[in-house]
UniProtKB/TrEMBL annotation:
Lineage top rank: taxon: Bacteria
Cross-referenced InterPro entries: Peripla_BP_I, SBP_2_dom
Protein name according to UniProt: Ribose transport system substrate-binding protein
Family indicated by similarity: Belongs to the bacterial solute-binding protein 2 family.
One cellular component term from this protein's GO annotations in UniProt: cell envelope
C-alpha cells in the first residue's frame, strides 16, 4: 500500500501573512504514540484518504509512549527539516508543541491538529483542528453514569496524562457534570500516563481502598482497558457502574460480557480520513473550518452490533 504523509491546514486571517505553502509531496502524520489501536485506526483512515491523493505520500509516526513528549517534538522538527507538504499532528502536550508548530507556520508548512489542541498561544499557527468535542463527550459519560448508578454514591475517575487538551476537556466535562447534577462523591482523578498496566494497578488499589465504590470511569483506551481487567480480577464485574472511553477489541469484549456498562467511542478513523482530506483542501488553496467535530458514539451491549457502533469500533 502506498504510504502517504498528510498535513492539515485551514484558512485564517494570519495565513495572509505567511508565505506560500511548501511544495513537497510528503505529508507527515504524527500522533501521540504508535503503540495503540486507536492511533493505528487513525493511520487506517489516513491511508484510506491518501489513496485518493496520488500526487502525495504519507509517513506515520508516534513515540513509544504518550508521555514521551520530547520524542514527539523531535518528530515534528524533523518533518519540518524535511520540508514536508503538511503535518497532521495529535499533540501530546498543549504547550510543548507550540514552538514546533510555530516553526512549521514560519516555514509555510500547514499543520492540522487532531484529537488534542494547543494552548491559546498556539492557535494562530495551525490551520484546522479535528477532534471529538471532548467536553461534550465527558458530559455524555457523566450523564450515562448518573442514569445507571443514581444521584448519590461514590465514583472514581481513572484518567491518563494530566494537562493534555483532550484530558482537560474530557475529564473536566465529566467532573463538572457530576458536580452540577448529583450528590456523587468523586475519588481521584488518578493518572495512568496512558499505560494499561499502571491503570490496572491503580484500579486494583482504588477498589481495595473504596469497597463502597458505586461507579468508575476510564477516560481513554489503555486506562479503560486496565480498569476493566482490574474489575474482573477483583470480582467486581456487574457490581458497580463502569464506563470507558474508546473502542478497541478489549473494550468491546468488556461491554459484551458486562464488565463495562458502556464505552464512548471517538471517530478515530474519521480523524485520519478527514485529516488527510482537509490537508489536501488547504494545499489546494481552499478554505476549511478552524474546528471540525469528528463525533462520539456511546456503545452499550444493546447497540454494539448496530451500524452506528460498528462504524466507529476498531
Amino acid at each position: 500500500m502506498k504510504t502517504v504523509i498528510i498535513g492539515l491546514m485551514a484558512a485564517t486571517a494570519m495565513m495572509a501573512c505567511a508565505p506560500a505553502w511548501a511544495q513537497s509531496k510528503e505529508i507527515a502524520v504524527i500522533v501521540k504514540t504508535a503503540n495503540s489501536n486507536f492511533w493505528q485506526n487513525v493511520n487506517n483512515g489516513a491511508q484510506a484518504a491518501i489513496e485518493h491523493l496520488p500526487d502525495y505520500t504519507m509517513t506515520f509516526q508516534g513515540p513509544a509512549a504518550e508521555s514521551n513528549v520530547a520524542d514527539q517534538v523531535n518528530m515534528v522538527d524533523n518533518a519540518i527539516n524535511r520540508r514536508v507538504a503538511g503535518i497532521v499532528l495529535a499533540p501530546s502536550d498543549p504547550d510543548a508543541l507550540i514552538p514546533s508548530v510555530k516553526k512549521a507556520w514560519e516555514n509555510a508548512i500547514p499543520v492540522v491538529l487532531i484529537d488534542s489542541g494547543l494552548s491559546e498561544d498556539g492557535t494562530k499557527y495551525y490551520q484546522s483542528f479535528l477532534s471529538t468535542d471532548n467536553k461534550t463527550a465527558g458530559e455524555l459519560c457523566a450523564k450515562e453514569m448518573i442514569e445507571r448508578m443514581g444521584n448519590e454514591g461514590k465514583v472514581a475517575i481513572m484518567s491518563y496524562v494530566p494537562g493534555v487538551g483532550s484530558e482537560i476537556g474530557r475529564v473536566g466535562g465529566f467532573t463538572d457534570y457530576i458536580k452540577a447534577n448529583s450528590d456523587i462523591e468523586i475519588v481521584g482523578p488518578l493518572y495512568s500516563q496512558s499505560l494499561m498496566a499502571t491503570a490496572l494497578n491503580q484500579t486494583v488499589d482504588t477498589l481495595a481502598a473504596n469497597p463502597d465504590l458505586n461507579g468508575i470511569f476510564g477516560a481513554n483506551e489503555p486506562t479503560a482497558a486496565g480498569m476493566g481487567r482490574a474489575i474482573e480480577q477483583a470480582g467486581r464485574a456487574g457490581q458497580l457502574t463502569a464506563i470507558g472511553f474508546d473502542g478497541n477489541q478489549d473494550l468491546q469484549d468488556f461491554v459484551r460480557d458486562g464488565t463495562l456498562d458502556g464505552i464512548a467511542v471517538q471517530g478515530s478513523f474519521q480523524m485520519g480520513d478527514l485529516g488527510v482530506q482537509t490537508v489536501a483542501k488547504i494545499i489546494a488553496g481552499e478554505e476549511v473550518d478552524k474546528f471540525i467535530d469528528t463525533g462520539v458514539v456511546f456503545v452499550t451491549k444493546d447497540n454494539i452490533d448496530a451500524p452506528e457502533a460498528q462504524n466507529v469500533l476498531y
